[in-house]
Amino acid sequence: MPPPYDVHNFLNLLGIEIQEDDAAHLTGSFTVTHPLIAGTGYLWAPAVVALADALCAFGVGRNWPEGASSFTTLEAKTNFLSTAREEEVVSGLAVPLHLGSTTQVWDAKVTNQATGRLMAVYRCTQLILYQRAGT
């Protein structure tokens, strides 16, 4: 597919739905399906990271600095605290910690809705990109 790319393609593969109604607090969720279960019998950890990262990325998109052309991740960190099983719903919430003109820092929390337990905390730093003069 030529640019612009559909940002929902990967999320659709995982069943992740993003609620895009609030620029300051991005939320989303997915139901754990059999293909998302690791060999341990629990949710595959990268699916948790995908939800958290997507929420933060959509947050950057909702808090776009004037003149910016794109962004990229400088750093991402996840701490896993618990997990989920098949058919449980996993939800996330992302909030900005810093909304600058060159960087943004976002925090996300991912929760297992069936147990109420916090599954992961995620923090990322995004570099805001601008077109160079003359390009």
Percent helix, as a range, is: 10-25%
Determine and state the CATH class.
Alpha Beta
**Beta-strand level of the residues, as a percent range?**
35-45%
> Quaternary state, please?
single chain
Query: How many strands?
Result: 6
Total tally of structural domains: 1
SSE string, helices as H and strands as E: HEEHEEEE
The named CATH superfamily: Hotdog Thioesterase
Q: What is the approximate shape?
A: elongated
Low-confidence segments, given as residue ranges, are: none
Average residue-wise pLDDT: 93
Number of helical elements: 2
CATH topology: Thiol Ester Dehydrase, Chain A
Please state the CA-atom Rg, rounded to the nearest Å: 16 Å
Strand order of the largest sheet: 1-2-4-5-6-3
Biggest sheet overview: 6 strands, antiparallel
Please name the CATH architecture. Answer: Roll
Helix/strand structural class: alpha+beta
